[in-house]
Amino acid sequence: MKIICIGRNFVDHAKEMNAPLPKRPIFFLKPDTAILRTSNFYHPKFSNNIQYECELVIKINKVGKNIQEKFAHTYYSEFTLGIDFTARDLQSECKKSGLPWEIAKGFDSSAPLSDRWLKIEDYKNEIQFSLTKNNQTVQEGNTSQMIFSFNQLICHLSKYITLKKGDLIFTGTPSGVGKVDIGDTLEAFVGNEKLLKINIK
Ligand code: MG
Q1: 107, 34 in Cβ contact below 8 A?
Q2: pTM for this entry
Q3: How far is the centre of ligand 1, averaged over its atoms, from the C-alpha of 84 (Å)?
Q4: What residues flank ion ligand 1 with Cβ within 5 A?
Q5: Dist. CA 101 → ligand 1 center (Å)
Q6: CA angle, 175 then 20 then 16, to 5°
Q7: What is the pLDDT of residues 28-68, one digit of tens each?
Q8: If you measure from the C-alpha of residue 172 to the centroid of ligand 1, how many angstroms do you get, rounded to a whole number?
């Protein structure tokens, strides 16, 4: 199982990162050891600026390569929410030096994931999601604001990487990313339904 993450898929987030809008989806991978299935995230000592990025996550349900956009919807039927934790200080150093970001993105427990999966068919064209930090809303997103749709992402990714059953795609974060500190609590919602709670320890 692999985890593919999309960068800069919301205009407002690209702007807050002072990054240009992508012409094609930007992606990177996290190892399976990044998945965190408990509600406690232990702040790593190697970073002083771990930031949350709340994202919709889709699960691939069959193997596929070179998937046409018109068939992409048949490759996933469920979604949930996850956090793409990012060591922003390490990422900035990598970017400055033109180096890969894996150290900032792929560390252990950097991908908390809800254990509740929702059916895509229950949502028409739009999925609304949000994140609170210590009960204050910090991120709000909607699939209608995505630069590249789920189907476009699957079409693009599968040109380069064979997608397999169980693979996860983190589909990008809206604006409002920010730092977490020990003692903070993050809660992620689809509509009004809480799917994920993470305590920073
Ligand atoms: Mg992200």
Answers
A1: yes
A2: 0.97
A3: 5
A4: 53, 84, 173
A5: 12
A6: 25
A7: 999 999 999 999 999 999 999 999 999 999 999 999 999 99
A8: 5
Q: Per CATH, is 3-200 categorized as 3.90.850.10? A: yes
What is the residue extent of each domain of the chain? 3-200
Is the CB of residue 58 less than 8 Å from the CB of residue 150?
A: yes
Q: Is 157 exposed, middle or buried (0-12, 13-18, 19+ CB in 10 A)?
A: buried
For residue 54, the CA-to-ligand 1 centroid distance in Å is 7
Q: Which residue has the tokens 């070179």?
A: 66
Identify each DSSP E strand in the chain by its residue range: 3-7, 26-30, 35-36, 40-41, 50-52, 54-60, 76-83, 86-87, 111-112, 118-119, 128-133, 136-142, 168-170, 178-179, 185-190, 193-200
Cβ-contact 189, 195 below 8 angstroms: yes
As a whole number of angstroms, the distance between CA 182 and CA 90 comes to: 19
